[in-house]
Design goal:
The structure is a single chain. The protein has about 400 residues and is of the alpha/beta class. The protein folds into two domains: about 160 residues, Rossmann fold; about 190 residues, Hypothetical protein af1432. Helix content is about 55%, strand content about 10%. The protein has a six-stranded parallel β-sheet with strand order 3-2-1-4-5-6. The longest helix has 21 residues. The structure holds 2'-deoxyguanosine-5'-diphosphate and fe (iii) ion (2 copies).
Length: about 400
């Protein structure tokens, strides 16, 4: 039996790691492959603001899914003190006394192995595997392999193939800029986004793909339209455009769910629906959508709030909240309604006036259908009417009125 072992910080585990292991698996055909995240790497301190070891272990387990016969091991994370490879190999040797342990390493590790803790133990318990052409250092690698064989009786496999060189450091820098996804498996990326590790913000192409999967196909065009309008309004009003896009992409993410499912989801998130929401579960999708977006897509609080208040609005909304509230109502695919053009125009002239008009027209619409008016809609309208008065502006007049 042969066991391939690959250790590292896995902060985060990326395609470079996975490709290296895949190449080694192909060459060495191990019966089992272990990815072992290190607790405290003896050679380098973990980067500042790094996720908890549990997160690194979970990400490593997700990365391992990309490789048949591969699993993540928590043995180093469970051990006290620094993660010495010699200790790990001793432990594995006890567990699998008849197995050949093969320790896969990068060039730098091979070249420095004599400075490690107990190098004789490492080379006594395990064979080493290294890539022949990593970083164009073929000469150094083959010389070191020969030296280790002679001096320590080491078994060294020199593997063909050039590993993908991406660094976790670079990926950590890309993630807050909505980039870096191409260096990670989808499972690892989704995990990072969900838990907001490394200050990551979702890549919007990825987010659209994921979010649209929750929608009825007929709603996708509305969500696209809402995003486009939210972006235009964000540019107009000096709000971070991608924040507006992110909120818009997710604003109706739970809309498809019927009443009973809405109520179940609300309960799951500890949301207690009010009287109006219980009666008209249509209203709940804003509340459950916000909680769902925070849970699954790790949205920040400002974005969560923009989703939360997109249906009724609320007094004192942030510009981002106003933008999503309006974009939803005036996106270019909306079926025409009497005040639509007036709200569209106002949205680019005075956000408060547009919100007041939009809330006013919702009140009319809801009343005309005999539905109960949610107090938040009424409060929104009142608040913005007062705000307009206070700044000496008058509410937008619509021909006839805002009724259908
Ligand atoms: O989700 P969308 O259809 O894109 O738009 P939305 O989130 O604004 O939801 C519109 C629905 O919400 C529509 O069916 C009317 C309902 N609604 C909005 N404000 C109120 C309301 N329903 C009641 N009962 N009371 C309200 O104040
Ligand atoms: Fe909605
Ligand atoms: Fe909507």
């Amino acid at each position: 039996m042969r066991i391939l072992i690959y250790g590292g910080s896995f902060n985060p585990p990326h395609l470079g790691h996975i490709r290296s292991v895949q190449t080694a698996v192909k060459a060495l055909a191990p019966d089992k492959t272990l990815l072992i995240p290190a607790a405290i790497p003896p050679h380098k301190r973990l980067a500042q603001g790094s996720p908890e070891p549990e997160h690194r272990l979970a990400m490593t387990a997700l990365a391992a899914e990309a490789i048949p016969g591969c699993e993540a091991s928590d043995m180093e994370l469970r051990r006290e003190g620094p993660s010495y490879t010699s200790d790990t190999l001793r432990q594995l040797h006890e567990l699998y006394p008849d197995a050949e342990l093969v320790f896969l390493m990068g060039t730098d590790m091979l070249l420095s192995i004599e400075t490690w803790h107990e190098p004789e133990t490492i080379m006594g318990l395990a064979s080493l595997a290294v890539f022949a052409r990593e970083a164009g250092r073929e000469g150094e690698i083959s010389a070191q392999a020969a030296h280790l064989r002679e001096r320590y009786g080491a078994a060294v496999y020199v593997l063909e193939g050039t590993p993908v060189t991406v660094s976790s450091t670079e990926i950590r820098e890309l993630l807050p800029q909505r980039q870096g996804r191409e260096y990670l498996t989808d499972g690892v990326y989704a995990y990072i986004i969900r838990h907001r590790l490394y200050g990551a913000r979702p890549d919007l192409d990825w987010l659209r793909e994921k979010a649209y999967a929750y929608l009825k196909p007929t709603r996708v065009e509305h969500v696209r339209g809402t995003e486009a309008m939210a972006r235009r309004l964000a540019v107009r009003w000096g709000v971070e455009e991608t924040d507006a896009a992110e909120a818009a992409i997710l604003h109706d993410v739970t809309k498809k769910m019927a009443g009973p499912d809405q109520l179940r989801l609300a309960e799951k998130y500890g949301i207690i629906p009010d009287t109006w929401e219980r009666e008209n579960t249509e209203l709940l999708h804003a509340v459950t959508g916000a909680a769902f977006a925070a849970d699954i897509f790790g949205v920040s609080e400002p974005i969560e709030n923009a989703i939360r208040w997109h249906t009724t609005g609320r007094p004192g909304m942030t510009a981002l909240e106003q933008i999503v509230f309006l974009a939803d109502a005036i996106e270019m695919g909306r079926k025409p309604y009497p005040a639509l053009e007036a709200i569209r125009k106002a949205a680019f002239e005075d956000l408060d006036a547009a919100v007041e008009l939009c809330a006013r027209r919702t009140l009319d619409y809801v009343a005309a259908r005999g539905l109960p008016i949610h107090p938040d809609t009424a409060r929104t309208r009142d608040h913005y009417l007062k705000k307009l008065e206070d700044k000496g502006a008058s509410p937008v007049q619509v021909d006839g009125d805002a009724n259908e």
